[in-house]
Design brief:
CATH topology of the largest domain: Aminoglycoside 3'-phosphotransferase, Chain: A, domain 2
Oligomer: single chain
Structural class: alpha+beta
Low-confidence stretches: none
Shape: globular
CATH class of the largest domain: Alpha Beta
Number of helices: 11
Largest sheet: 5 strands, antiparallel
Strand content: 5-15%
Mean pLDDT: 86
CATH architecture of the largest domain: Alpha-Beta Complex
Length: about 325
Amino acid sequence: MDRIKLPPEPIRRRIEALNQTPPVRARWTRACRGLSEDTVWRLEGGSQTLAVRCWRINDYKLQLIRQLRRVLSWTCKEGLAFVAAPIGEPIHDGEGGLWEMAPWKSGSPLSELSEDSSAVEEAVKGLVQWHVVARRLSDPPSWFPRGMQLRRYRLKQLDTIAQEIPWLVDDRVAARWPELTPLVRGRCQAAERAAQAIRSIDWSQATSQMIHGDARPEHFLIENGELTGLIDFGAMRRDTPWADLARLAGELGPGRIEEVVSLYEQASGQPVDRAAVAALDLAGAAVSSANWSRWLSDPSRHWPDPELVRQRLRSISSRLAAGGFGPA
């Protein structure tokens, strides 16, 4: 059976047995494949509905998964019901895959509800709760880079992009991905501006702690007006919570930083530097533009969901335009 459509049968049978799912009642649905090599399935018909994720592992990712499991299990014990804690031990398939189970979180992604102010407020409140609990983590993973290290790394990325010689997109690549061309224009200047802004900001008020790391609107699930899921912690790291705010506000759409920051300040009672959030959003868009230019020009890479790629490129273009770079 094609493992792109379903997990391998031995893996399915082991997971079904662990979840007390009779094979005749098991319903497997591929929930998403995203833009990484990891895939998520939904399993119904057993004691509970599961999200089953296959990580394509290497040594770094294996270390990351171990830390993610510990952190997520701890935050769930602290009362964050909208975070899904892993169930049991992951299963190795012997072919570079690590299979992990967690309770399925229902709801509509915030990306589909971005014009609903109450949904955005609920998502921001949930993000505040996650940050508060993560801040209390008594023994954060020591191998995660610290805040100043991340600042230096971010600046190094931006300086490298700013010094690049602008290049045109290959005709073959441009024909398949026309959304990529606007990202190339102005990327160097955007990186330079973002680096200047980050250097000029007083970061003494920015705490360094575990953050989500990829707080896109599609990772917040809303149902009946409540946050039911904060998902996909694969980019979790130690950084300033303002980086999560920048990602969420930037991808909600142009002009949303003030709205998201105000909601965050109201829920957390803590001030947020709006200039820092704007700089982090522009920096993230410049880095993403450089990454996608490289990835899409690599003929060895394959993209099973082209429309998802195009959506991501349009989002990056919108964020660059909001910073004054690229077409509005």
